[in-house]
């Protein structure tokens, strides 16, 4: 999300308002789906393109890094040039990129297509939410719509492996990209017919230096995590890379602290609740993405499960993330963010402990319980993280805070995928259990970090009046 003062759309009927929600939620479903749909197909993609296992993390992270980097700027562009126009542009870019991915003949082309998908996705997620908020001026109706919105995103992220597994089983890995085309075409027709144009009444300036630095910083950080195992963690190239990264982070903070309207305001990190929320967002999505990638590879490569079976096994995660997201929103409104954060941290920690038992051999009940616990934890985490990020801040800074939290979620996904690939890429089936143990420990530690954030969050902080 970005800082936006809503320019309400006049005169939309109830039916049309909810059709706008359905259209925008469908686009959001695509964005979340494409963040995870390829996880169950990475082995097939590698075999089909003759790619090294260590490079396959880029198939996921090329999408998430670009998506994370451009979220805030895309929202600002939509407020300036028109939300429907930018949303339509995002659909065209996303659809064209999906076709490029489906037709890719080698890994570099697929990675380029995934990065282009990330550009399109950045124009869909925050912009679609702004369209929905603009279309629903009634606070009660708007709250219901945002609840549906949150559940849809959780469902899409968790449903990716199931849909991907079904498509790969019925066709091949290219189908996970072909499937986007008809949805995008239908969305373009419906947007043109039903979605009103709107703009923000307060237009944020585009922070081009900050945007370029953020892309380089996030890209370099993820590249080091992915490529360091092959190059050697103590190799001169990797050590120099971390040195350059440290300098670039310092330059980014220095530049942003001097911008009148920074992309990410470093001053926000002086607010303890905001810093805790950002760390919590990263931790939740590190845990989520590592769980998804490592377990699907474990089931397929080490246990010999078919893609459809491996994807179907993640259904408890989809159930937990979808069902408990609105419950969390209700609790935040009634008691504040602390209780949902504590529940989320406890559940993710318990799920990580279940995964640790897999190092002793395959245990289907433990795996399914881990999926359910971690999915439910994710469902409980999102609402209080957003609430805590914007709590205690003046309204004019709430948009930047919310946008930073959204960026942190995608950054967590990218880091989790990179770490998972670092630990298990190319590992033989007989060594997978031992190689995966550090990953299960990291997931458990993410739950512990979220527990700490929840413990330090005031009980009634930012509960709506």
Automatic annotation (TrEMBL):
Molecular function GO terms recorded: transmembrane transporter activity
Domain Major facilitator superfamily (MFS) profile: residue ranges: 20-463
Transmembrane segments: 18-43, 55-78, 90-112, 118-136, 148-171, 177-196, 208-226, 232-255, 276-299, 305-327, 339-362, 368-390, 411-428, 440-457
Compartment(s) where it occurs, according to its Swiss-Prot or TrEMBL record: Cell membrane
Keywords carried by this UniProt record: Cell membrane, Membrane, Transmembrane, Transmembrane helix, Transport
One Gene Ontology cellular component annotation held by this UniProt entry: plasma membrane
Topology term for the membrane: Multi-pass membrane protein
Entry protein name: Putative efflux membrane protein
Source species of the chain: Microbacterium esteraromaticum
């Amino acid at each position: 999300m970005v800082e936006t003062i809503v320019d309400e759309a006049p005169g939309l009927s109830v039916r049309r308002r909810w059709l706008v929600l359905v259209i925008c939620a469908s686009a959001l479903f695509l964005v979340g789906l494409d963040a995870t749909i390829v996880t169950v197909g990475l082995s097939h993609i590698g075999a089909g393109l003759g790619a090294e296992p260590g490079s396959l993390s880029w198939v996921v992270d090329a999408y998430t890094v670009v998506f994370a980097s451009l979220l805030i700027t895309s929202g600002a562009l939509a407020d300036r040039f028109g939300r429907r126009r930018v949303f339509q542009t995002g659909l065209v870019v996303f659809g064209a990129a999906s076709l490029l991915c489906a037709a890719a003949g080698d890994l570099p082309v697929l990675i380029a297509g995934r990065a282009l998908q990330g550009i399109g996705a950045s124009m869909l997620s925050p912009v679609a939410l702004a369209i929905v908020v603009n279309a629903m001026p009634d606070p009660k109706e708007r709250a219901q719509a945002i609840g549906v919105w949150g559940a849809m995103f959780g469902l899409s992220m968790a449903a990716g492996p199931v849909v991907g597994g079904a498509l790969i089983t019925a066709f091949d890995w290219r189908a996970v990209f072909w499937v986007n085309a008809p949805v995008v075409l239908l969305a373009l027709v419906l947007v043109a017919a039903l979605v009103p144009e709107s703009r923000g009444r307060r237009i944020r300036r585009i922070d081009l230096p900050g945007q370029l630095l953020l892309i380089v910083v996030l890209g370099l950080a993820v590249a080091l995590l992915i490529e360091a195992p092959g190059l050697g963690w103590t190799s001169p190239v990797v050590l120099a890379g971390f040195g350059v990264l440290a300098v670039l982070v310092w330059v980014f903070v220095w530049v942003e602290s001097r911008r009148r309207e920074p992309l990410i305001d470093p001053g926000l990190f002086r607010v303890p609740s905001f810093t805790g929320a950002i760390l919590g967002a990263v931790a939740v999505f590190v845990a989520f993405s590592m769980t998804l990638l490592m377990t699907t590879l474990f089931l397929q490569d080490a246990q010999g499960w078919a893609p459809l079976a491996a994807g179907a096994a993640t259904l408890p995660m989809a159930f937990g993330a979808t069902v408990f997201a609105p419950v969390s929103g209700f609790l935040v409104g009634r008691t504040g963010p602390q209780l949902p954060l504590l529940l989320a941290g406890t559940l993710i920690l318990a799920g990580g402990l279940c995964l640790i038992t897999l190092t002793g051999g395959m245990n289907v009940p433990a795996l399914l319980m881990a999926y359910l616990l971690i999915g439910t934890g994710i469902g409980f985490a999102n609402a209080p993280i957003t609430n805590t990020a914007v709590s205690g801040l003046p309204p004019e800074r709430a948009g930047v805070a919310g946008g930073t939290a959204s960026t942190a979620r995608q950054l967590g996904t990218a880091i989790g995928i990179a770490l998972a690939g670092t630990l298990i890429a190319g590992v033989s089936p007989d060594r997978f259990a031992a190689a995966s143990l550090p990953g299960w420990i990291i997931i458990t530690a993410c739950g512990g970090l979220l527990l700490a954030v929840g413990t330090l969050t005031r009980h009634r902080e930012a509960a709506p009046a």
